[in-house]
């Protein structure tokens, strides 16, 4: 079957990109009959352009004029079988789009599973700035992708996924489809931590989820099969400007070279100087800031960012281009810039253990997991914290 969205995009000059043509068709499919005025307001494009798109879809027999515009039988078949909407629970889908749901009630089973899997994931590796987000945050991210037309029928990448966003998205899709074989979504994850990838693989196998895994160090460029091939990506990069630059650059390189491709970028609040630098890098990459959602992300611990972080929703323009294209050899992780040591005292025997970079224990989680070297107790008090390198 022809790619009718691409056909119409090639005939109508629209700077907003092919994704706007997709959103146009989805809006008519979901809510038709729809007026030109309502489509103009929803899509943020002028009525003459809305009308021009309609005419091209009508020529292809995808839309028909009937008390507004609706999809034809051919259009319905195209949306459902080619774009992946067949057998979708439209009632639940519409409720999500209209924010007519209570996540803790309507998705209690999915949240329970996400919570269970997050609780049992591998210990965080603070040397690569891992931190534990809450189950609600993980599932909210999946819902955010859905609301931004970046999940149904889409190829989506998670760049780093110790928060199990891939699992949350796959569980959401499983709930939305009566039979998951109809879901055309293609979920991928790229991570340097093989423990995380192995864990996601085991969860996917247990739950019958389709998730493709890539063991990859982002300091190296993606392979050719990853370049220019994704519709959207998530990333929660290291809490440094260089880390943010690298992770966003790799993600942009993986996106299709089209305006309107979505990026879901989680980052802690920074100083005014760092915020300006972050925004400058975003601008240099040819990205638009669509939305900034304060306190969207909540983390367990994560003292560096105060336990909360913002979600920055970005989209590509026709000028989108990664800043970092080749191998990257500079520092990106917080601990590479600011090395700290902590002295913990065992509550049982009084032994003092030094925790930190190049010590016997990298972090308190490792110490608790293995226990006191002297008595194996897992209960400690923090006695001293000091910076040993700050640059």
TrEMBL record:
Q: What is this protein called?
A: N(4)-bis(aminopropyl)spermidine synthase C-terminal domain-containing protein
Please give the InterPro entries that the UniProt record associates with this protein.
BpsA_C, rRNA_MeTrfase/Polyamine_Synth, SAM-dependent_MTases_sf
UniProt-listed Gene3D superfamilies: Vaccinia Virus protein VP39 (3.40.50.150)
Q: SUPFAM superfamilies, alphabetically?
A: S-adenosyl-L-methionine-dependent methyltransferases
GO BP field: polyamine biosynthetic process
Annotated Pfam families: BpsA_C (PF01861)
Q: Which GO terms describe its molecular function?
A: transferase activity
Positions of transmembrane segments: none
Where the record annotates domain N(4)-bis(aminopropyl)spermidine synthase C-terminal, the positions are 112-324
Organism, per UniProt? Clostridium cellulovorans (strain ATCC 35296 / DSM 3052 / OCM 3 / 743B)
